Amino acid sequence: MTSENTGTDRAQLSVEDFEQLARSAPEPTALEFLGGRPVTKPGRDGTHGCILMWLLKQCLQQRPGLALYPEQGLKTEQHRKGRARPAGSLAPEGHFAGQGEWSEPEGVLMAVDVTPHAPETDPRYRSEKRDGYAAADIPVHLLIDRDACTVAVHSEPEGGKYRGRMSYPYGATVEIPAPVGITLETEKLKDYTH
Predict the structure, then answer these.
(1) N or C end of the chain: which has fewer CB within 10 A?
(2) Judging by DSSP bridges, how do beta strands 110-114 and 140-145 pair with one another?
(3) Kind plus residue range of the DSSP H or E element containing 72
(4) What is the distance between the alpha carbons of residues 59 and 92, in angstroms, rounded to a whole number?
(5) How many Cβ atoms sit within 10 Å of the Cβ of residue 78?
(6) Burial tier of 145 (Cβ tally within 10 Å: 0-12, 13-18, 19+)
(7) Which CATH number does the domain housing residue 104 bear?
(8) pLDDT confidence band for 109 (50 / 70 / 90)
(9) Are 146 and 114 in contact (CB under 8 A)?
(10) 167 lies in a domain?
């Protein structure tokens, strides 16, 4: 009797094996571990950096005791079996001191992702990473979607999903709920559409 591989029978990599693979990956390769499989995080371009700097300035102006840490590895998903690198993690200043490459999500107020211009990454940003952050009880996920020119705010994690979901076009005033509690004026994001 033979069994046909339908593509759904994937060998699962252990978290420990993944972490070893990530440590040995050549620079500047960044890996994430989503849904039990390693995935390559696309490289960032200048526009990505400009968007992250725009957000950093707004966060620091409104919440000076917080910092937006770029690319900090977080343990996500149920039972912390995922590994994600959000574009930014909003947490109290000094929060990640003494923590390793993959930090526990407790104390992170918001995970931020900025989509690249690479259609194959869409499911990761729009569902896999978002749901991993929710399962790790990160209070807010902010997704800046460069293809759709929208800012999506996901909040109120419960049962591995965010109950609160709002999407705004670039140019709108976006209220980020507690515990973040900031207002984003997104008109500047229109300058970063290409």
Answers:
(1) N
(2) parallel
(3) none
(4) 11
(5) 11
(6) middle
(7) 3.90.1570.10
(8) very high
(9) yes
(10) yes
Alpha-carbon span 38 to 22, nearest angstrom: 9
Q: Determine contact, residues 37/8, Cβ cutoff 8 Å.
A: no
Beta strands 102-103 and 73-76 are parallel
Token duo for residue 108: 């992170």
Q: Is residue 177 in a domain? A: yes
Q: Which structure tokens are listed for 20? A: 């070893």
- Containing structural domain, residue 111: 43-192
Across the strands, what pairs with 33?
38, 83
What pTM was computed for the model?
0.82
Tally of CB atoms within 10 A around 141: 24
pLDDT tens, 150-181?
A: 999 999 999 999 999 999 999 999 999 999 99
Distance CA 109, CA 66 (A): 9
Confidence of residue 125 (pLDDT cuts 50, 70, 90): low
Per-residue model confidence (pLDDT) at position 54: 96
